[in-house]
Amino acid sequence: MTAPSPTVLRKAAGRPRLPPLLRLLILTQLAFNVGFFAVLPFLSEHLGRTVGMAGWLVGFVLGLRTFSQQGLFVVGGALADRYGVRPVVLAGCALRIAGFGWLGYAERTWAVIGAVLLIGFAAALFSPAVESEVARQAVLWEEAGGGPRTRVLALFTVAGQAGAFTGPLLGALLLAVDFRTACLAGAAIFVLVLAGHARLLPQHIPGRTRTRLRGGLGPLVRNRRFLALCCAYGAYLLAYNQLYLALPAEVERAAGSRAPLAWLFALSSLLVVTAQLPMTRWAGRRLDPRRSMAAGLLLVAAGFAVVALARPAGWTGTAGLLPAAAFVVLLTLGQMLVAPVARAWVPDLAEDGRLGLYTGALSSVSGLIVLAGSSAAGTLLDSGLPGAVPWLALAAVPLAAVALLPRRR
């Protein structure tokens, strides 16, 4: 990669100011998540109560949504390498608008699955295009002396979590009308995103070369260190996905409804918004990438263990929500260590000109793991086993992921 001239790095308050393209991409992540999280946290309740799906089927649909998104990132990443960021992002926004509109009116299982697949595939187009360009620009920023790439990726994470903080609050207000209204509001947000990016996103990004689609998978599947990172990240993502499957069931058991769920999601997002950058700086000074990810995975495992240890007591009400809150806090702290480092690691493992493909593959392998694990998790939660057992089994997932992390050369 060719680093931008130091003159590009304008100073603001004594610190290099991010270039306009990076600022646009970071704000893009904020907008994506506002629209997305206005709907997703409330999907499992809608599927179970309104549509009438069994627990295993709800788990399968949620896993299918993650797979159609994460699992097909490799397609979106390869298309971004071939055709550029702009057309892939705009196409993904258009599909997300259609998917949210369809989900709002879907009442049969096949229609719900079709809408969920469309929503997931839309993100499989725009997310790897944006993420790979943010990673590429972060490396250029680092090479030009602007600062460590992890800081840029941490800002990207903060923007996403700010959207994840705002989205559920907006969704909770809209659910006072009905689920369809929340879906249509999510679609309206993506209409605004589509219009804004059609105007502001450059037709051609300097330094980004187009790469043919074929010929990139062979070196990728032989890259053992990259595949090890994919598997570890996938185990983390399966654990993180329990915010939408295991946590709602636990909140309903403790509180008698899922109303506190929006506040727990807000707590998670608020933690990331306020603590992500300080934690990234702290970890960058003390931990290499492997140790940072290992520490994050151990925190995630501890979150599941807290709920498992509390379940035999059978607490309800405010006391019953305390283990769920501790789970959210520990899971979020783990996320803050894992997510930026995993993204920052990919450019070191990817071939030149294939960063979109490798960024997409990271999420695709993760999506396969989530698809395989979500149905099992849903079955486990509905199995009638003692309440601590499913949470202990889920705690083993991030623990196993620590052993999968690649060794740093």
Automatic annotation (TrEMBL):
<feature type="transmembrane region" description="Helical">
    <location>
        <begin position="322"/>
        <end position="343"/>
    </location>
</feature>
<dbReference type="InterPro" id="IPR036259">
    <property type="entry name" value="MFS_trans_sf"/>
</dbReference>
<feature type="domain" description="Major facilitator superfamily (MFS) profile">
    <location>
        <begin position="1"/>
        <end position="409"/>
    </location>
</feature>
<feature type="transmembrane region" description="Helical">
    <location>
        <begin position="111"/>
        <end position="131"/>
    </location>
</feature>
<keyword id="KW-0813">Transport</keyword>
<keyword id="KW-1133">Transmembrane helix</keyword>
<feature type="transmembrane region" description="Helical">
    <location>
        <begin position="55"/>
        <end position="80"/>
    </location>
</feature>
<feature type="transmembrane region" description="Helical">
    <location>
        <begin position="179"/>
        <end position="202"/>
    </location>
</feature>
<feature type="transmembrane region" description="Helical">
    <location>
        <begin position="292"/>
        <end position="310"/>
    </location>
</feature>
<keyword id="KW-0812">Transmembrane</keyword>
<protein>
    <submittedName>
        <fullName>MFS transporter</fullName>
    </submittedName>
</protein>
<feature type="transmembrane region" description="Helical">
    <location>
        <begin position="21"/>
        <end position="43"/>
    </location>
</feature>
<dbReference type="Pfam" id="PF07690">
    <property type="entry name" value="MFS_1"/>
</dbReference>
<feature type="transmembrane region" description="Helical">
    <location>
        <begin position="223"/>
        <end position="241"/>
    </location>
</feature>
<dbReference type="InterPro" id="IPR020846">
    <property type="entry name" value="MFS_dom"/>
</dbReference>
<dbReference type="InterPro" id="IPR050171">
    <property type="entry name" value="MFS_Transporters"/>
</dbReference>
<feature type="transmembrane region" description="Helical">
    <location>
        <begin position="261"/>
        <end position="280"/>
    </location>
</feature>
<feature type="transmembrane region" description="Helical">
    <location>
        <begin position="152"/>
        <end position="173"/>
    </location>
</feature>
<feature type="transmembrane region" description="Helical">
    <location>
        <begin position="388"/>
        <end position="405"/>
    </location>
</feature>
<keyword id="KW-0472">Membrane</keyword>
<dbReference type="InterPro" id="IPR011701">
    <property type="entry name" value="MFS"/>
</dbReference>
<feature type="transmembrane region" description="Helical">
    <location>
        <begin position="87"/>
        <end position="105"/>
    </location>
</feature>
<feature type="transmembrane region" description="Helical">
    <location>
        <begin position="355"/>
        <end position="376"/>
    </location>
</feature>
<keyword id="KW-1003">Cell membrane</keyword>
